[in-house]
Amino acid sequence: MIGGDNFNGTAAQLRSFRDNTGATYPLLIRTGDPTGGSWSILYGPWDNYVVIDHQGIVRYHAAVQWPHGNRYHFEEIRGVVDSILAATGVPERPVLPGFILSGRPNPFQDATTLTFVNPLEASARTRITVLDPAGRVVATVYDGLAAPGPHAVRWNGRRDRGGRAASGRYLVRAELQGYVLTRSIAFLR
Predict the structure, then answer these.
(1) Are residues 109 and 75 in the same domain?
(2) DSSP per residue over 142-186, as a string?
(3) In angstroms, rounded to a whole number, what is the distance separating the alpha carbons of residues 61 and 175?
(4) Per residue in 120-136, pLDDT tens?
(5) Quick check: is 149 in a domain?
(6) Quick one: 58 and 29 in the same domain?
(7) Which residues, listed in sequence order, are joined to residue 145 by a DSSP beta bridge?
C-alpha cells in the first residue's frame, strides 16, 4: 500500500492507518523538490492512496474517483487490500502443473478471449469469473464441466446483472477441481 503525499507523515499516522486497515505502506515524501518530484508527475501534488500488488500492478488509485481532500475511503482501500491478499496469497494447495489461464487481447476494448487448460485426464468442475478490484464478482463467464485440454471463452465487458463494466483493471479467477489461478486484465471503454 502506498499513501502518497508531498509531506512527511508522522509515526502516529502510519500506526493509525495500519491499525485501521491491517495494511502498511511507505509514505512517499518530497525530496527537496517543492513540486513533489516524479511522484507529482504521476499522481498529482495532493493526497492519494494507491494499492499495488506484488507484481507491481496498480489495483486501486483513489485520485481516479475522488477529488483532493476526499481520497481516504477506508472501505474501498480495505476491500482492495483484502482482495489482493485473497487473490495473491499462498495457495492452500500446490499449483497444478499444466493449469493455464490467460486473456488476449489485454488490454481490450470490445471483448477478450480467456483461455484455460484443464491438464487433468478427466473432465473437471470449472468456474471462470471476472472480479473487480474489491474482489466482487462482475461476471461469470464459464461454470460447468471442462473436458481435458484447452478451452476458450469470451468476455465482452458486460456485467452479470446487465450493463457494461467500467473501464479499469479486473481480475480473472479460474477455479478447477479446487485449484485456483488469478490473472489481471484491463478493460478500456
Answers:
(1) no
(2) EEEEE-SEEEEEEE-SB-TTSSBPPSEEEEEEEEETTEEEEEEEE
(3) 28
(4) 999 999 999 999 887 88
(5) yes
(6) yes
(7) 125
Say how far apart CA 78 and CA 20 lie, in whole Å.
9
| Domain ranges, residue 173 | 100-187
Quote the radius of gyration of the chain (alpha carbons, Å). Answer: 19
Q: What is the pLDDT of residue 32?
A: 43
CA distances from 189 to 20, 24, 113, 129 (A): 35, 33, 16, 20
CA distance 8 to 4: 10
More confident residue, 97 or 58: 97
CATH of the domain at 151: 2.60.40.1930
Is residue 94, in this structure, part of any structural domain at all?
Answer: no
Digit-coded pLDDT (tens) for 71-90: 777 667 766 665 555 544 44
The CA distance from 39 to 147, in Å, is 49
Grid cell, residue 178, equals 479446487
Beta bridge partners of residue 143, listed in sequence order: 127
Helix-helix angle 11-21:74-88, to 10 degrees? 70
C-alpha cell at 173: 479467477
Diameter of the chain by CA atoms?
Answer: 63
Give me the sheet containing 2-4, strands edge to edge. Answer: 27-28, 2-4, 48-52, 58-61
Question: How many structural domains compose the chain?
Answer: 2
181 touches 99 (CB < 8 A): yes
